[in-house]
Amino acid sequence: MDKGRFGVPAAVRDWAIALGVAALLLGTGLSGEPGADPGVLGYALLAAGGLALAARRRAPLAVLAVTGLCAVGYQAAGFDALAVSYLVAVYGAVRAGHRALTVAASVTMLVVLPLTALVLHDGPAGEALAQARHVLEIAWLIAAFAAGEALRQAERRADEAERTREETARRRADEERLHIARELHDSLTHQISIIKVQAEVAVHVARRRGEQVPEALLAIQEAGREATRELRATLEALRDDDTTPPRGLDHIPELVEQASRAGLDATLTIEGKRSDVPAAVGRTAYRIVQESLTNIARHASAATASVRIDYRAGSVVVQVDDDGKATPDTVPTPGLGLLGMRERVTALGGLLRTQPRSEHGFSVQAELPVEHTS
User: In angstroms, what CA-CA distances link 369 with 310, 343, 366?
Assistant: First the structure.
């Protein structure tokens, strides 16, 4: 709910203004000329004109029309009171961006009020015109219009400034990611490649001579391969920014097919009716499936894996299960992959569950909201 500077909800502020204006108009009507009896309808129009302002944010043009009609009505009933409710409605309509319609409505009011006074007033025409001016003075009308336009322009400039700040921050983040990727590539890739090549050469030479390969050398060889894969994945993630076509839900079948070609019996199930999904949700779903299948292939010793995409009302649920070596007593090791998943899901306001399955294997489930996400 929209709140102001002091944390007061917008609806409460609108009702406070509406009640205040209604009380002001009724007080003005009750303190009018002695002997005048405008009747219940006149007082009802005074109150209705003020109370209508409670809806000025939701329906500014409707409130403008209602307050204008009420002003004409209570003038016809004999009240000589400034149309405060109509002025507030003018301010709200201009602030909402309805300048042309507000000008047209105000010009109509400036014509209708004098005509109403001339038709219904029994005295001289000058007194009738003076009464019409009292109901809606041009100076107050111009002031209300100017105030609404000034605040509209200020809000527009504030929105543009906020959007510019966000774009600048995003561009700087992209530049920093690329800088980090270049630094990692320049500083680590070459050295790790040398270690990996040297270890593989040593293993090859030892086996060719018929010698037993030391366990330490085999460990170095495997560590070099693993480090190369991890570094490549890290560099790809760092270079993956929003300026390139994003990988999303439509690309998940490719991940499942790749896993199947690698020897894992992977299946994909899609449930629910596909709806428009924000790009950020699609990217996160893709990364979760990608990381989950990678972890299964490397660490789970699994034969099968199932990927399920469930389109629900207001959310997309992504679940990846395997039949690996994990048991209900297994304590998940919080590696960088799981941490990255959780950060992505949390950034979207979603929920991530990672736990061993009841029989054996591991399950990753992410619920990603699709409403109010950019």
Answer: 12, 15, 10
